[in-house]
């Protein structure tokens, strides 16, 4: 007895089933195996690289997490006190998962962990890009700055690569025996822990910031005459006979609209143009105003960095007193830079008997200069010749 047309149609694979079958068939070929291995190397290598770059500067990554936890972004202020330890955990996890996928060790749970991480990071980068809340995701620290949309695109590519690894999982084969692979993973974990501990108690081993040793601060603030200018789009709103009329210009001068009464003005940055590496370094005195140029002309000057007094390490304050007294005796000019309240700074100076004055500087700038609170930089005619964590003040040569 012949089957009806309806029964024959119901047994026919759907379009999606046919697509899946073709993809599965593809991964049974040598080309599917090659694609899987390429994705394995790509995902593992990129996770190791990205994690190590951030592990080199976990304090900087914690600042980025704090930005995400802010009330006007993810509204998770309760996580701010744990930002540093979350940063350390995430970057070590990133490195170890990268190592394990390269070794094909515990591939199924590792792949699920990689998928969870990349979904989390993709959400963050999309949020940054779409809502323009955090303009730098910190994916590669200060080594490689990506725009929010570039970061999101990078995460989408990684997400696709990880999904390919799921499909071609059977091609992910161990390189060595299981014992050797576990040994390599454990050694990698121990190395990450010791490296992280070192940079937290000293400073990043590799400094990719514009305030690295050897950088000249005035030179870093120069804008070349032929540098691209920022492009800003202005949207003017006028009331014309009771209706809103918008006029878009790239000039801040108000346009003329016949019969129109000005109501509102909105602006949007289309292209930020050229921004010098150092664009926000200003030293201000409550009495004298901007004294940046004068300080950067000093032959020998020690700058004590305390971006916020309430976050400064007490042990470091005593080391500041000991070192700055030596620096003053050696003929150095010494100043303090902070973003804290002027009266609080004066109270601290009186309590610790500091023999130098504090000046005001933007807190983000200070956190960028040195990853220590307090920290010290030695400057000669505007050039940074040394910078130290408070644990290493005694190694600065005067």
UniProtKB/TrEMBL annotation:
GO cellular component: membrane
Signal peptide per UniProt: none
Membrane topology: Multi-pass membrane protein
Any single biological process term in GO: methylamine metabolic process
InterPro entries with a match to the protein in the record: Methylamine_util_MauE
Record flagged with keyword rRNA-binding: no
UniProt keyword annotations, A-Z: Membrane, Transmembrane, Transmembrane helix
Localization terms from the record: Membrane
Domain Methylamine utilisation protein MauE as annotated: residue spans: 33-166
Pfam family, one: MauE
Entry's transmembrane regions: 30-53, 82-103, 110-131, 151-168, 180-200
Protein name per Swiss-Prot or TrEMBL: Putative membrane protein YphA (DoxX/SURF4 family)
Organism from which the protein derives: Kordia periserrulae
Lineage: Bacteria, Pseudomonadati, Bacteroidota, Flavobacteriia, Flavobacteriales
């Amino acid at each position: 007895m012949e089957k009806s047309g309806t029964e024959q149609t119901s047994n026919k694979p759907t379009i999606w089933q046919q697509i899946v079958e073709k993809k599965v068939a593809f991964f049974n070929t040598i080309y599917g195996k090659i694609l899987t291995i390429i994705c394995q190397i790509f995902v593992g290598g990129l996770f190791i690289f990205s994690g190590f770059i951030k592990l080199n500067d976990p304090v900087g990554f914690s600042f980025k997490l704090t930005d995400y936890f802010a009330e006007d972004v993810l509204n998770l202020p309760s996580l701010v006190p744990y930002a540093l330890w979350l940063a350390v955990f995430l970057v070590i996890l990133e490195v170890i998962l990268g190592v394990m996928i390269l070794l094909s060790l515990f591939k199924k749970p590792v792949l699920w962990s990689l998928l969870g991480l990349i979904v989390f990071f993709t959400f963050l980068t999309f949020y940054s890009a779409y809502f323009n809340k955090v303009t730098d995701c910190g994916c590669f620290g200060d080594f490689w700055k990506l725009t929010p949309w570039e970061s999101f695109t990078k995460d989408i590519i990684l997400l696709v690569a990880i999904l390919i690894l799921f499909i071609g999982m059977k091609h992910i084969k161990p390189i060595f025996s299981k014992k050797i692979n576990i040994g390599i993973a454990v050694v990698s974990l121990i190395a990450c822990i010791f490296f992280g501990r070192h940079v937290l108690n000293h400073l990043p081993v590799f400094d990719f910031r514009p305030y690295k040793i050897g950088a000249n601060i005035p030179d870093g603030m120069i804008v070349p005459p032929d540098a691209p200018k920022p492009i800003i789009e202005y949207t003017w709103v006028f009331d014309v006979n009771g209706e809103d009329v918008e006029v878009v210009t790239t000039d801040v001068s108000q346009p003329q609209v016949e019969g129109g009464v000005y109501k509102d003005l909105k602006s949007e940055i289309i292209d930020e143009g050229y921004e010098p590496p150092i664009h926000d370094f200003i030293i201000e005195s409550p009495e004298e105003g901007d004294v940046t140029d004068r300080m950067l002309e000093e032959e020998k000057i020690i700058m004590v960095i305390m971006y916020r007094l309430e976050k400064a390490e007490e042990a470091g304050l005593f080391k500041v007193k000991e070192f700055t007294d030596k620096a003053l005796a050696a003929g150095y000019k010494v100043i303090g830079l902070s973003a804290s309240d002027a009266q609080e700074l004066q109270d601290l100076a009186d309590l610790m008997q500091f023999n130098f004055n504090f000046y005001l500087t933007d807190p983000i700038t200070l956190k960028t200069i040195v990853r220590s609170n307090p920290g010290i930089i030695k400057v000669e005619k505007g050039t940074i010749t040394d910078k130290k964590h408070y644990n290493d003040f005694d190694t600065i040569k005067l």
